C-alpha cells in the first residue's frame, strides 16, 4: 500500500490487503472503527489513512487493549460552538461552521482547518443518513479534540446522502493527529446518539444554543 497518497480503495481491496472478509471491513466502516467515508452510497477508503491505521494497530499489538474512553460531551463542546446556519449549500454551511470551530483554543490554524474540512468533504461525503453529516479531520496543528455543531434552518440538498434525506444537522469534529482512537470513538458516539429521532427532532426545534447544548449534553 505504498502508492499515491490520494489513491482510493474499495471494500474489496481493503479486505484483500488486510486479509479479512469484506463483511468485516463493512462492519468496521459502519461502526467508525476504520478510516472511511461514503461517495454516494458506497464506502471508500483513502489508502494513506488505511496504512496509518494498520501501522497504529500493529505497533499497539503487543500491548493490552486500550480501554474505550468515555465521551463526555461537555469536555469537547461549549454553547458558543453551536451555530444556527441559514446557508442553503453544503460549502457555505461547512465554511461557516469551520470558521466557528477555528476560533477554539485547540485550533492553531483556522485557515488550515477550513481548507481540510472542505477537501475532506470533496473526497468523500460525511453524510451518514437521517439528515446528519459528521465532517471531521485530524491535524498536527490541533492540540486536542474539539467540536462544533451546526443546526441548519434550510435543507442542505447538495450533500450526497445514503437515504436521500437532506442534511440539517452538522457535527464537526477536529482532533490532533495522534488522537486516532479517541477520534473514532467520538465519531461512533455521535453517530449512535443521533440515531435517536427524539434527539434529532429536539435539536431541530431548539431556538437557542443553550437549549441545544443541554439536549446534546444530557447523559
Automatic annotation (TrEMBL):
SUPFAM superfamilies: Phoshotransferase/anion transport protein, Putative DNA-binding domain. Residues 75-219 form the PTS EIIA type-2 domain. CDD domains: PTS_IIA_fru. GO terms for molecular function: DNA binding. It comes from the Bacteria. This is PTS system IIA component, Fru family. It comes from Treponema saccharophilum DSM 2985. The lineage of its organism: Bacteria, Pseudomonadati, Spirochaetota, Spirochaetia, Spirochaetales.
